[in-house]
Structures are given as structure tokens and as C-alpha cells.
Amino acid sequence: MEMTPTPHNGAETGEIAKTVLMPGDPLRAKYIAETYLENPVQVTSVRNMLGFTGTYKGKEITVMGGGMGMPSMGIYSYELYHFYDVDQIIRIGSAGSLQDKVELMDVVIAMGACTDSNYAYQYGLPGTFAPIADYELLARAAEAAGKQGTKAVVGNVLSSDIFYNADGGVNDKWRNMGVLAVEMETAALYMNAAAAGKKALCMLTISDLVFGEEKLSAEERQLGFGKMIEIALEL
């Protein structure tokens, strides 16, 4: 049996690019690879967390699912940084808007990530760590969105461990602090990148409004996600 660096990833050493685009959904990773990459090759399918490596405008890129929640993102991003020598991971996901100014199909570029998770306890820090994006990637993403004509909002997001929260007022509290949107993975990615001395960025397409009834249809999700994907590929 072939040996791989980790039991969670079937890729051999050298089969994953230095840049990894990471949607949560492995089937979206498959769609991105087949739609945007040249000569994509599936490099892993362990636990159906699909990963593909190909080229975009002559540069090698891997697209791989990251799953849902910080434990899943924590495992996959840690292994990519440490076992596959990946330099930068760009998360491309969806989020629920917490602010009226952040509308359906807007792209949120996460400058920082608040969290209700205890993920940072492992570092034994004498205070609260603030997980932030790599500035170079963030600035380039904002510039690419502007050239594309896509509305991009830069700011703080919330990475929550809880999707169905028993505290019905929790979103109001984060909204009052100016947090733009809520999702479930960014803080773990940013912490792993910081601890590894690597780069990370998260971009999110708004798929629903936490304080409204509107949600994207399947067709609108495809269009909105396409804009975000193209920004990520340009990085």
C-alpha cells in the first residue's frame, strides 16, 4: 500500500500545489476543478473530501474541500501547511449576513475572524488571539473584486461552532459589534496559518440574510460563487 503523509489525505508528496483553494463542499471543489482548471487530476478522495490539482493561466493550483466547522478545517489546513508544504490557503465559502449593508451575493473578504470556539486554547497564550488574514492576499483580493466590478466588503466575520444556537439573541450581539457575517471555519484557518508561518485568506459569498427572509436560489448561488471563485483564482 502506498504511504501518504496523513491518513486524511490520499495525495502523495508533490501532488498538491503551493496554493490551495478550499471550499467547504467537496463537490464544489470538483465543480471548480472541472470548470476552471486545465488538466485537473484528482489527488485525494479520502472520506469523499475530494481534491484536484491542475493549472490556471499556467500556474499550478489545488482545489480541495474543507468540510464544515473548525475541527474539519483545522485538520485539513494543518496537514496542508505542515505535511504538504502548502504556502497559502484561500477559503471560498458562503455566509449569512449580519449587517444591512451586506446584501445577497456580496463578497465578504474576512480581514479578521471572531469566534465562540475554544480552538486557540492549544497555544497556551496569556490572552486572546486575534485571527487575521494575510494582508497581501487581502489587498489583492479587494483589488481583483474592484476590477471585476463585484461588490466586496472587507471586515470582521464570526466563525461559530454552533449552527443551531439555543441562545436566540446571539446574532444581535455580534451584529452590534459590527461583525459583517457568520460562518464556521475562518478562525481555525487563520490560527493554523499564523502558527505555521503561512498565508491564508477567506472570501465568502452572502447566501442568506440572518436578519431577513431573502436567500439565494440555486441559480443565483452559482452566479455569485462564480465571481468569488474567479477572484480567488486571480490571486
From TrEMBL:
GO terms for cellular component: cytosol. The keyword Membrane does not apply. The active site is at residue 208. InterPro entries: DeoD-type (IPR004402), Nucleoside_phosphorylase_CS (IPR018016), Nucleoside_phosphorylase_d (IPR000845), Nucleoside_phosphorylase_sf (IPR035994). The record marks 221 as: Important for catalytic activity. The keyword Ubl conjugation does not apply. GO terms for biological process: purine nucleoside metabolic process; uridine catabolic process. Keywords: Glycosyltransferase, Transferase. A purine D-ribonucleoside binds at residues 8, 183-185, 207-208. Transmembrane segments: none annotated. GO terms for molecular function: purine-nucleoside phosphorylase activity; uridine phosphorylase activity. It comes from the Bacteria. Phosphate binds at residues 24, 28, 47, 91-94. Catalyzes the reversible phosphorolytic breakdown of the N-glycosidic bond in the beta-(deoxy)ribonucleoside molecules, with the formation of the corresponding free purine bases and pentose-1-phosphate. NCBIfam families: deoD, PRK05819.1. Belongs to the PNP/UDP phosphorylase family. HAMAP family: Pur_nucleosid_phosp (MF_01627). Homohexamer; trimer of homodimers. This is Purine nucleoside phosphorylase DeoD-type.
